[in-house]
Amino acid sequence: GAVVSQHPSWVICKSGTSVKIECRSLDFQATTMFWYRQFPKQSLMLMATSNEGSKATYEQGVEKDKFLINHASLTLSTLTVTSAHPEDSSFYICSAPSTGNTIYFGEGSWLTVV
Amino acid sequence: QQQVKQSPQSLIVQKGGISIINCAYENTAFDYFPWYQQFPGKGPALLIAIRPDVSEKKEGRFTISFNKSAKQFSLHIMDSQPGDSATYFCAAQPSGNTPLVFGKGTRLSVIA
Protein backbone atom coordinates (compact mmCIF):
# COMPACT_ATOMS: atom_id res chain seq x y z
CA GLY A 1 0.00 0.00 0.00
CA ALA A 2 0.88 3.64 -0.09
CA VAL A 3 3.47 4.86 2.37
CA VAL A 4 3.24 7.75 4.76
CA SER A 5 6.42 8.52 6.65
CA GLN A 6 6.77 10.48 9.89
CA HIS A 7 9.90 11.92 11.40
CA PRO A 8 11.08 11.82 14.08
CA SER A 9 9.71 8.59 15.53
CA TRP A 10 10.34 9.92 19.01
CA VAL A 11 11.62 13.15 20.43
CA ILE A 12 12.35 14.50 23.89
CA CYS A 13 12.36 18.25 24.37
CA LYS A 14 12.63 20.66 27.24
CA SER A 15 9.62 22.53 28.49
CA GLY A 16 9.25 25.86 26.69
CA THR A 17 10.97 24.80 23.49
CA SER A 18 9.38 24.01 20.13
CA VAL A 19 9.51 20.77 18.23
CA LYS A 20 8.65 20.00 14.60
CA ILE A 21 7.20 16.74 13.33
CA GLU A 22 7.24 15.97 9.61
CA CYS A 23 4.73 13.90 7.65
CA ARG A 24 5.57 12.84 4.11
CA SER A 25 3.62 10.92 1.52
CA LEU A 26 6.35 8.90 -0.19
CA ASP A 27 4.67 7.56 -3.32
CA PHE A 28 1.65 9.75 -3.86
CA GLN A 29 0.64 13.38 -3.67
CA ALA A 30 -1.64 14.57 -0.92
CA THR A 31 -3.41 17.91 -1.06
CA THR A 32 -4.85 17.09 2.34
CA MET A 33 -3.29 15.47 5.39
CA PHE A 34 -4.77 14.87 8.81
CA TRP A 35 -3.06 15.19 12.18
CA TYR A 36 -4.17 13.14 15.17
CA ARG A 37 -3.21 12.88 18.79
CA GLN A 38 -3.56 9.65 20.70
CA PHE A 39 -3.40 9.12 24.44
CA PRO A 40 -2.58 5.68 25.88
CA LYS A 41 -5.34 3.14 25.41
CA GLN A 42 -7.57 5.67 23.68
CA SER A 43 -8.76 6.27 20.18
CA LEU A 44 -7.31 8.77 17.76
CA MET A 45 -8.35 12.36 18.26
CA LEU A 46 -8.40 14.54 15.16
CA MET A 47 -6.48 17.74 15.73
CA ALA A 48 -6.51 19.41 12.35
CA THR A 49 -6.79 19.04 8.61
CA SER A 50 -3.75 20.25 6.73
CA ASN A 51 -4.40 21.75 3.30
CA GLU A 52 -1.65 22.25 0.73
CA GLY A 53 -1.22 25.91 -0.08
CA SER A 54 -3.78 27.17 2.42
CA LYS A 55 -4.44 27.40 6.13
CA ALA A 56 -5.09 24.32 8.21
CA THR A 57 -8.52 23.64 9.62
CA TYR A 58 -8.40 23.02 13.36
CA GLU A 59 -10.85 21.01 15.41
CA GLN A 60 -12.69 22.66 18.24
CA GLY A 61 -10.54 22.99 21.31
CA VAL A 62 -7.20 22.68 19.51
CA GLU A 63 -5.02 25.78 19.90
CA LYS A 64 -3.88 26.84 16.45
CA ASP A 65 -1.13 29.04 17.88
CA LYS A 66 0.27 26.16 19.85
CA PHE A 67 0.04 23.49 17.16
CA LEU A 68 1.29 25.13 13.99
CA ILE A 69 0.60 23.22 10.82
CA ASN A 70 2.24 23.94 7.49
CA HIS A 71 1.50 22.04 4.28
CA ALA A 72 4.20 23.44 2.05
CA SER A 73 4.10 20.89 -0.75
CA LEU A 74 1.99 18.05 -2.08
CA THR A 75 4.10 15.53 -0.16
CA LEU A 76 4.96 17.27 3.10
CA SER A 77 3.03 18.56 6.07
CA THR A 78 4.63 19.63 9.34
CA LEU A 79 3.26 19.98 12.85
CA THR A 80 5.17 22.29 15.19
CA VAL A 81 4.37 22.13 18.87
CA THR A 82 5.33 25.55 20.18
CA SER A 83 6.33 26.36 23.76
CA ALA A 84 5.87 22.72 24.65
CA HIS A 85 4.72 21.71 28.11
CA PRO A 86 4.63 18.29 29.76
CA GLU A 87 0.90 18.01 29.06
CA ASP A 88 1.71 18.11 25.34
CA SER A 89 3.51 14.79 25.70
CA SER A 90 1.63 12.38 23.50
CA PHE A 91 1.67 10.20 20.41
CA TYR A 92 1.10 12.27 17.28
CA ILE A 93 0.05 10.57 14.06
CA CYS A 94 -0.53 11.91 10.58
CA SER A 95 -2.50 10.41 7.74
CA ALA A 96 -3.12 11.14 4.09
CA PRO A 97 -5.64 9.96 1.51
CA SER A 98 -4.21 8.12 -1.45
CA THR A 99 -5.85 6.89 -4.64
CA GLY A 100 -9.57 6.35 -4.22
CA ASN A 101 -9.45 8.21 -0.92
CA THR A 102 -7.89 5.24 0.90
CA ILE A 103 -6.34 6.78 3.99
CA TYR A 104 -2.91 5.69 5.14
CA PHE A 105 -1.27 6.53 8.44
CA GLY A 106 2.27 7.30 9.39
CA GLU A 107 4.11 5.35 12.07
CA GLY A 108 3.52 8.08 14.61
CA SER A 109 5.80 10.33 16.63
CA TRP A 110 6.23 10.07 20.37
CA LEU A 111 6.75 13.44 22.01
CA THR A 112 7.99 13.66 25.58
CA VAL A 113 8.32 17.10 27.14
CA VAL A 114 10.50 17.24 30.23
CA GLN B 1 -21.47 12.72 20.24
CA GLN B 2 -19.96 9.48 19.11
CA GLN B 3 -20.75 8.86 15.47
CA VAL B 4 -19.27 5.37 15.30
CA LYS B 5 -19.93 3.01 18.18
CA GLN B 6 -17.59 0.05 18.52
CA SER B 7 -17.90 -3.02 20.70
CA PRO B 8 -16.61 -4.83 22.59
CA GLN B 9 -14.00 -2.68 24.27
CA SER B 10 -11.81 -5.73 24.81
CA LEU B 11 -11.88 -9.28 23.58
CA ILE B 12 -10.05 -12.45 24.50
CA VAL B 13 -10.09 -15.28 21.98
CA GLN B 14 -8.38 -18.61 21.97
CA LYS B 15 -5.91 -19.40 19.22
CA GLY B 16 -7.75 -20.77 16.21
CA GLY B 17 -11.03 -19.16 17.21
CA ILE B 18 -13.04 -16.44 15.49
CA SER B 19 -12.73 -12.83 16.67
CA ILE B 20 -15.74 -10.63 15.99
CA ILE B 21 -15.81 -6.87 16.45
CA ASN B 22 -18.89 -4.81 15.76
CA CYS B 23 -19.48 -1.20 14.78
CA ALA B 24 -22.60 0.87 14.28
CA TYR B 25 -23.04 4.30 12.75
CA GLU B 26 -25.75 6.91 12.41
CA ASN B 27 -24.64 9.19 9.59
CA THR B 28 -26.06 7.89 6.31
CA ALA B 29 -23.57 10.09 4.44
CA PHE B 30 -20.78 7.67 5.36
CA ASP B 31 -19.75 5.64 2.34
CA TYR B 32 -16.34 4.22 3.21
CA PHE B 33 -15.74 1.88 6.14
CA PRO B 34 -12.16 0.82 6.88
CA TRP B 35 -10.71 -1.22 9.70
CA TYR B 36 -7.31 -0.44 11.13
CA GLN B 37 -4.97 -2.59 13.20
CA GLN B 38 -2.68 -0.88 15.66
CA PHE B 39 0.17 -2.44 17.60
CA PRO B 40 1.51 -0.65 20.71
CA GLY B 41 3.68 2.32 19.81
CA LYS B 42 2.86 2.13 16.11
CA GLY B 43 0.56 4.00 13.79
CA PRO B 44 -2.67 2.35 12.62
CA ALA B 45 -2.31 0.08 9.59
CA LEU B 46 -5.13 -0.34 7.10
CA LEU B 47 -6.44 -3.88 7.36
CA ILE B 48 -9.46 -4.05 5.11
CA ALA B 49 -12.16 -1.66 3.93
CA ILE B 50 -15.60 -1.79 2.38
CA ARG B 51 -18.03 0.49 0.59
CA PRO B 52 -21.82 0.23 0.98
CA ASP B 53 -22.43 -1.30 -2.43
CA VAL B 54 -21.31 -4.73 -1.18
CA SER B 55 -22.39 -6.70 1.89
CA GLU B 56 -19.20 -8.62 2.47
CA LYS B 57 -15.52 -8.42 1.66
CA LYS B 58 -12.92 -11.04 2.44
CA GLU B 59 -9.17 -10.75 2.43
CA GLY B 60 -7.37 -13.80 3.75
CA ARG B 61 -8.50 -14.44 7.32
CA PHE B 62 -10.21 -11.06 7.59
CA THR B 63 -13.82 -10.46 6.55
CA ILE B 64 -15.98 -7.36 6.76
CA SER B 65 -19.73 -7.87 6.91
CA PHE B 66 -21.82 -4.81 6.12
CA ASN B 67 -25.51 -4.28 6.82
CA LYS B 68 -26.60 -1.03 5.23
CA SER B 69 -30.20 -1.10 6.48
CA ALA B 70 -29.08 -1.68 10.06
CA LYS B 71 -26.15 0.73 9.70
CA GLN B 72 -23.80 -1.83 11.13
CA PHE B 73 -20.56 -3.43 10.04
CA SER B 74 -18.31 -5.98 11.63
CA LEU B 75 -14.84 -7.47 11.36
CA HIS B 76 -14.36 -11.21 11.56
CA ILE B 77 -10.91 -12.66 12.09
CA MET B 78 -10.88 -16.35 11.30
CA ASP B 79 -8.32 -18.74 12.80
CA SER B 80 -7.15 -16.04 15.19
CA GLN B 81 -3.46 -16.11 16.02
CA PRO B 82 -1.42 -14.62 18.89
CA GLY B 83 0.14 -12.28 16.33
CA ASP B 84 -3.31 -10.79 15.77
CA SER B 85 -3.25 -9.42 19.32
CA ALA B 86 -3.59 -5.67 18.80
CA THR B 87 -6.09 -2.85 19.00
CA TYR B 88 -8.58 -2.70 16.17
CA PHE B 89 -10.38 0.46 15.13
CA CYS B 90 -13.37 0.72 12.86
CA ALA B 91 -13.86 3.98 11.06
CA ALA B 92 -16.20 5.71 8.66
CA GLN B 93 -15.87 8.50 6.18
CA PRO B 94 -18.27 10.52 4.08
CA SER B 95 -17.40 10.85 0.43
CA GLY B 96 -14.64 13.27 -0.47
CA ASN B 97 -11.44 14.40 1.19
CA THR B 98 -12.69 14.34 4.76
CA PRO B 99 -11.17 12.86 7.92
CA LEU B 100 -12.13 9.46 9.25
CA VAL B 101 -14.46 9.14 12.21
CA PHE B 102 -13.11 6.43 14.49
CA GLY B 103 -14.66 4.03 16.91
CA LYS B 104 -13.12 3.81 20.35
CA GLY B 105 -11.17 0.66 19.56
CA THR B 106 -11.16 -2.97 20.63
CA ARG B 107 -8.20 -4.54 22.36
CA LEU B 108 -7.92 -8.10 21.09
CA SER B 109 -5.86 -10.69 22.92
CA VAL B 110 -5.43 -14.08 21.29
CA ILE B 111 -4.25 -16.66 23.79
CA ALA B 112 -2.66 -19.99 23.02
Structure description:
The complex is a heterodimer of chains A (114) and B (112). Chain A has 114 residues and is mostly beta strands. Chain A contains no helices and eleven strands. Chain A has strands at 4-7, 10-13, 19-25, 32-38, 44-51, 57-58, 67-73, 76-81, 90-97, 103-105, 109-113. In chain A, the strands form two sheets. In chain A, strands 2, 4, 5, 6, 9, 10 and 11 form a seven-stranded mixed beta sheet that branches. Chain A is globular and about 40 Å long. The relative contact order of chain A is 0.33. By secondary structure, chain B is an all-beta fold. Helices cover 0% and strands 57% of the residues of chain B. Chain B contains no helices and eleven strands. In chain B, strands 2, 4, 5, 9, 10 and 11 form a six-stranded mixed beta sheet that branches. In chain B, strand 7 and strand 8 (72-77) form a beta hairpin. Chain B is globular. At the A-B interface, strand 5, strand 9 and strand 10 of A face strand 4 and strand 5 of B.
